[in-house]
Amino acid sequence: MTEAIALAKLKSGDQEALGWFIDRYGAYVGAIVNSILSGAMSRADVEEVTADVFIALWRSAGKLIPLNLKGYLGRIARNTALKKLREQRQELPLEEDMLVLEEDGLIEGMTLRERDSLVREAVLSMPELDREIFLRHYYYCQTVPVIAEKLGLKPNTVKSRLLRGREKLRQSLTGIEAVMGGG
Amino acid sequence: MEVRITELLNGLELDALPLEDSPVVSATKIKELTTMKLQQTEKKTRRRAGKRILALALAAAMILALGITAYAGGWFGLNEATIGGQTLADSFSDGEYRGKAVVPAKVISLAGYAGTAEFQASREWREFYNDYVSHKYYGDTFGQDLGEWGSARHVAYDELYTPALCEKFKEISEKYGLLTRTGKYSAPSLNNYRDLCEIAGISPFLDSDGRSLSWGGVGDYSVYDDGSFACGDCWWPEGKPGETDAMIYDIRIYRNVKGSMDTGFVEFGADEVLDEWEYTTAKGDTVDLVLGESKALILCEGEGAYVTVIWGQLQIVREKGLEIDRGTLERYADTVDFGSLSSVGTVDWRGSGDAYSIPTPEPEG
Question: What is the pLDDT of residues B100-133, one digit of tens each?
């Protein structure tokens, strides 16, 4: 079965099609949810949230098109897990999550869609390794030591790449370039 | 201006994100859980439909027994959503402001009908709030001075601005097992009708014929992390869209998700003459319509939410020469997709909404 056929069946209310998506993307969705919730919540919570992501897919099937469903599921998985974390008043162990922007930056007055597009461009324009580190940390909420271990880097190298990523994002959102130090 | 990077990335969809698939959860377990959750949803829907049918059957039996028509007696619709006969109003004596006092009114809940947890909670809250404000808080205060404590906190729910109010709110929501909202997303960053639909996870619900101003992105929007929202709308029943004199301008649309605590209400004058009727829209949705002297309402209950549309300031609209009758309200109802508005949404909390919690009460003083 192709993804387009599975989605068409899902839209018609076929629960077997939902099973097809779980077989195909369950490990991916579970890994994202686990990456964000592990350490703060139990395995049962991870399973619960992973199931909620596929319930969301079931309910929103009518408005989806068979294009980048993996990306869609990834986003829903991340946002659902973060929401769960917020409900439990849990903080994320992230390096400098706050980005300070000038008041008259480009994102003032933008719609969400426009802002998302700008953020996407900024992330895609980062050098490959910087992008991977940036997304592992700020998208999947992996800690610096975990990223360093997975990529075989020193923690300080990860931190300096994150700094560059933050500055790139800030520049894209404000249109203002800053003089960077070494890194 | 400060923004959270994690929130900026909420809308990111990439198909090649660097993360290893890992079998931390088994596909079999996820299938079991999703099947169970879907069955639970179906059962709830069937139970609600069953209750509705039973209520209608009982009402029909009573109508036959009493030999009267349903709407003349006010058996349906508005009475099922009425949570009280009193509201708060400023009171004056000898030209001096005397605080808030309760006055007679017909008060309608924006969340739930009689017999639901949301309705019961809304009624208890309204009774407490009226008593609290008329006896304890506003007695000598004019202009709703919320104070430092209240100003910092009332953003979550407008009426939570003292520790005592927060404590009671928590008590009632826990008593009825209702969720409280913890995030709100509004202007200036949310200024687009399509964003509102995307965040709440429902299909667009207004006809795009240009007669509804919201398509221009001008509405006053607030959306919460449970998928509930409020938005403004304007509508031209006649003339060209854009002509100020041909516009009904004070329309508010409320979607209150089932299972959540809501304090919203709308009121009519105690003696106001109300015309109520049931109507099936052009899109096939059954709604309750109410036409009064000051306001008009459209009420609808769906699988996922209670919906209330309020037309306000009808006296001013009538003074402009616009005719407001049953047909006008039905024509507007035809332009709204109430099925979408009241559906179970797939909330996509992707923006930088203000996250907050109902604060832990501290000693009042």
Answer: 788 888 899 998 888 899 999 999 999 999 888 8
pLDDT of residue B77: 64
Which CATH number goes with the domain that contains A137? 1.10.10.10
Examine residue A182 and state whether it is found in any structural domain, yes or no: no
Domain with A9, as residue range(s), is: 3-87
Q: Do A22 and B31 touch (CB under 8 A)?
A: yes
Mean pLDDT of chain A, nearest integer: 83
Question: In terms of domains, do A67 and A123 share one?
Answer: no
| B286-291: strand order across its sheet | B275-280, B286-291, B296-301, B305-311, B248-257, B229-235, B222-224, B183-186, B354-355
The closest CB to that of B1, out of A15, A47, A103, belongs to A103
Q: For residue B365, is pLDDT > 70? A: no
Same-domain check for residues A78 and A116: no
When mean pLDDT is compared across B135-149, B196-210, B329-343, the lowest value belongs to B135-149
Q: Could A112 and B34 be called an inter-chain contact, meaning their C-beta atoms sit closer than 8 Å?
A: no
Cβ distance B75 to B62 under 8 Å?
A: yes
Do residues A128 and A56 share a domain?
Answer: no
B19 in contact with A, Cβ within 8 Å:
yes
Question: What ipTM does the predicted assembly reach?
Answer: 0.83
Q: What percent of chain B has pLDDT over 70?
A: 71
| B204-233 residues touching A, CB cutoff 8 A | 217, 225
Q: Do B350 and A112 touch (CB under 8 A)?
A: yes
Let me know whether B148 and B195 are in one domain: no
Tell me how far apart the alpha carbons of residues B99 and B143 are, in angstroms, rounded to a whole number: 9
pLDDT at residue B1 above 80? no
Which of B12, B36, B198 is the best residue to mutate to test the A interface, defined by the most A CB atoms within 10 Å of its own CB?
A: B12
Contact of B192 with B216, CB cutoff 8 Å: no
pLDDT at A182 exceeding the cut of 50: no
Q: Do residue A67 and residue A8 come from a single domain? A: yes
**Which of B46, B48, B120, B125 has its CA nearest to residue B80?**
B120
Q: How many domains does chain B have?
A: 2
Is residue B187 pLDDT above 80, yes or no?
no
> Rounded to whole angstroms, how far apart are CA atoms B355 and B365?
26
Q: What is the total residue count of chain B? A: 365
Nearest to A47 among B1, B25, B203 (CB): B25
B 26-65: CB under 8 A from A? 26-27, 29-31, 33-35, 37-38
